[in-house]
Design a protein that fits this description.
This protein is an alpha+beta fold. It folds into two domains: 6-144, tt1808, chain A (Alpha-Beta Complex), CATH 3.90.1570; 156-321. It has 15 helices and six strands. Strands 1-2-3-4-5-6 form a six-stranded mixed sheet, sandwiched between helices. Strand 1 and strand 2 (62-69) form a beta hairpin. The chain is elongated, with a radius of gyration of 22 Å. It starts with 5 loop residues before the first helix and ends with a helix. The model is unreliable at 148-154 and 302-325 (pLDDT under 50).
């Protein structure tokens, strides 16, 4: 979360609209337009997104996404006066070439003069002229980290979370890693997923660790997780001086969550992919109040087929989860 207030952001949006009022050329102006757009929220686009992201379209044709923030946002930009419906269709054409965990929730199409936001999760669409951006700027709060958490047990994002954790559970169980060790492992992973999306950890630090420091075939995933859990259970002043910088960036987690030594699982590609798919979800949108029932449904495959039917009360869930988090 950045330190800009909504008043600051709204003022920046008005300045942005005035500065870009006459822009018209896609090739010359689109990239600086979106760099400036992200700056409205105090965000450097280079930290989260890439321009001209290559992707394979249907028929194996090569395409390039104008701006792509994996798992969050896709932008398709056109010259002034061009058809935004066609731009939206073009954006959707890229989806078959994108891994499921990287599919964006939001699509923005624009021709400088108009901006249209599509929220694919709830089916909402908002379009307005550039000069009204400051009046609609809260629609883009997700860029700055402003999100509405989902508290209802039947909310689609909570059900999605249970499905993703359930698949992760099943891949580990299929390898004969089960029982108490699997339960503790999943609770630890759930904590890491939530922590990296809620400023307990640095943003996306856990996902980056899995993506960058484990083999694609998953063969070293178990050992890497075991090392990470050991680091999380060790205060900074007790850690080895040769500890890798990426691991050293993880904070010490006080309590007993990471204290027990677990049997190290033997992992494969499917287990690693299931974990990465979990990490792609924005866990800040899920209330810790439903973690207890979420975990219960994950551990029970029969119950998972009837998601939402066995959620306990918020009070009981918080009693169960508070000692762990």
């Amino acid at each position: 979360m950045n330190n800009l207030s909504w008043n600051d952001i709204r003022a920046r949006a008005l300045t942005f609209s005035n500065e870009w009022a006459d822009a018209s050329r896609e090739n010359a102006d689109a990239k600086p337009f979106w760099v400036s757009f992200f700056n409205i929220f105090g965000i450097s686009s280079k930290r989260v997104a890439s321009f001209e992201e290559p992707v394979k379209k249907l028929g194996a044709k090569q395409g390039f996404i104008d701006l792509f923030w994996k798992g969050v946002l896709m932008v398709e930009h056109k010259s002034r006066g061009k058809d935004l419906d066609r731009a939206y269709t073009q954006a959707l054409d890229y989806f078959p070439g994108i891994q499921e965990r990287d599919l964006p929730r939001y699509i923005i199409v624009s021709d400088f003069a108009r901006i249209r936001l599509h929220d694919l999760e709830n089916g909402e669409e908002h379009e307005f002229p550039l000069e009204e951006l400051h009046q609609n700027i809260k629609l883009f709060g997700f860029i700055a980290g402003y999100q509405t958490r989902s508290f209802g047990t039947q909310d689609p994002v909570n059900i999605k979370a249970a499905e993703l954790l359930g698949r992760l559970h099943d891949t580990f169980e299929a390898s004969d890693y089960s029982g108490h060790a699997l339960e503790v492992l999943l609770v630890r992973i759930l904590f890491c997923l939530f922590a990296e999306d809620t400023a307990i950890f640095e943003r996306q630090i856990f996902q980056d660790f899995i993506e960058q420091r484990t083999s694609e075939d998953g063969s070293d995933l178990g050992a890497r997780l075991a090392h990470l859990f050991q680091v999380l259970n060790t205060p900074p002043d007790k850690r080895g001086k040769n500890l890798d910088d990426q691991l050293a960036a993880f904070p010490y987690v006080n309590g007993k969550l990471f204290g027990e030594t677990l049997l190290i699982p033997d992992c494969d590609r499917a287990m690693r992919e299931a974990l990465l798919n979990c990490s792609a979800l924005d866990w800040s949108r899920i209330s810790p109040a439903i973690f207890g029932s979420l975990f219960q449904s994950v551990m029970d495959s029969t119950e998972r087929r009837n998601l939402g039917a066995h959620y306990t009360t918020e009070t009981n869930i918080l009693k169960a989860i508070r000692p762990l988090f």
